[in-house]
Structure formats: structure tokens, C-alpha cells
Specification:
Chain lengths: ~110, ~120
């Protein structure tokens, strides 16, 4: 089955700097890769996603890149702000909206 | 009001007790999921249901059972709780017709402690 690794497990950046979180997946049939943000005391919430037929997607300060050959995808956050502090999870699935396999998470701290 | 609600939000119980966690949604979604979150392990799928008559095991279903009482309600039971079931449990929903993309919508979670 699918296995998703995520690095780093913790990341601290200064406010205004960029943050990058990387994930690798094992199943070459995976075709949908969402990123979820979990704030303290809340459930995860989708922030951006990418399908396998696209190499990059941007939404304001966040972007996701996908390298299908290497089977890895990354989340990029630019101009980080304190409200970006949270735990971020990547996920992969081979059948779009079903049966996500999540990575272990990255705790991002944005320091003022 | 929240679209996906979970009750209780916190529960402390003893080894061997039967526990039921409940999930309700007002989003009108057909698909519902139960996940378990442990530090350093991310979210792992316990059970999922694509409609009232369709129940499927996920990655870690041993020791758990579920009931889909209606489209809007999906319950998770621990028949005989054990300490290693101490975790944060999340319910999620998604839209079969993908009108909102493939997004899963999560409830606020239930923190369960088994002593």
C-alpha cells in the first residue's frame, strides 16, 4: 500500500521568511496530493491540493510542486506570518477523494 | 453552527469499558470517515462509509467497529477499550459528487484517554 514520508517534523522560521515542507510517496499510481493545516484544538483543514497532471499550483502565499518521476511533492509558504504556525499534513491517494494516506506531520513555528 | 460535530469532545475511561464516539454532519455529504491521530504518526484511517449501506475497513480497524445510522450520522465504537487506544479521533466527510473538489471536512476531534 501507499506510504507517505514527510520532512522536517518541526520547522522554525522568522516572520517574513519562507518555509518548505517536503513529502515523498511510494505508490506511483497516486494521483491526488492535498495539504492540510491543523491549528491547535481544531481538525485539519485543506489549504491546497494538486493533481497528478499538474506540476505546480499557487494560491496567494502558498504553492505546491509535484515531481511524479521522483515521487515527491512540496509545500512552499512565502512571507510567513504568525498565523501560519500550525501542524501541516501532506497526503496521497490513488483514487482521488477516497482513502487518503497522510504523512506524519510538520509542526511549523513562525517566530516574530 | 459547525458542519461536522463530534461528541464527546473529551472522554476518560477505563480499560475494558465500551465507548462510543459520535459524529454528525449537516453538509449533506454521502461519505464519512473515522481517523485516529497519534503524535508522530499523522492521521490513520480506521473505517470509512460511502453511503448508509457501505462500510469499509481502513488501515487500523482492529479493536473498533462503526455504525452508519443515517446519512448524517456515523458512530465509532471501542468494544473493550485498551490503553493504546488513547488518541485524538477525528470524523471527516466528503462529497461523492465532488462538487467541492476532493476535500475532506474534519470535525473538531475527540480526545480519548484509556486508563
Amino acid at each position: 500500500g501507499e506510504n507517505v514520508e514527510q520532512h522536517p517534523s518541526t520547522l522554525s522560521v522568522q516572520e517574513g521568511d519562507s518555509a518548505v515542507i517536503k513529502c515523498t510517496y511510494s505508490d506511483s499510481a497516486s494521483n491526488y496530493f492535498p495539504w492540510y493545516k491543523q491549528e491547535l484544538g481544531k481538525g485539519p483543514q485543506l489549504i491546497i491540493d494538486i493533481r497528478s497532471n499538474v506540476g505546480e499550483k499557487k494560491d496567494q502565499r502558498i504553492a505546491v510542486t509535484l515531481n511524479k518521476t521522483a515521487k515527491h511533492f512540496s509545500l512552499h509558504i512565502t512571507e510567513t506570518q504568525p498565523e501560519d504556525s500550525a501542524v501541516y499534513f501532506c497526503a496521497a491517494t490513488y483514487n482521488y477523494g477516497q482513502n487518503f494516506v497522510f504523512g506524519p506531520g510538520t509542526r511549523l513555528s513562525v517566530l516574530p | 453552527d459547525a458542519d461536522v460535530t463530534q461528541t464527546p469532545r473529551n472522554r476518560i475511561t477505563k480499560t475494558g469499558k465500551r465507548i462510543m464516539l459520535e459524529c454528525s454532519q449537516t453538509k449533506g455529504h454521502d461519505r464519512m470517515y473515522w481517523y485516529r491521530q497519534d503524535p508522530g504518526l499523522g492521521l490513520r484511517l480506521i473505517y470509512y462509509s460511502f453511503d448508509v449501506k457501505d462500510i469499509n475497513k481502513g488501515e487500523i480497524s482492529d479493536g473498533y467497529s462503526v455504525s452508519r445510522q443515517a446519512q448524517a450520522k456515523f458512530s465509532l465504537s471501542l468494544e473493550s477499550a485498551i490503553p493504546n487506544q488513547t488518541a485524538l479521533y477525528f470524523c471527516a466527510t466528503s462529497d461523492r459528487d465532488n462538487r467541492q473538489g476532493y476535500e475532506q471536512f474534519f470535525g473538531p476531534g475527540t480526545r480519548l484517554t484509556v486508563l
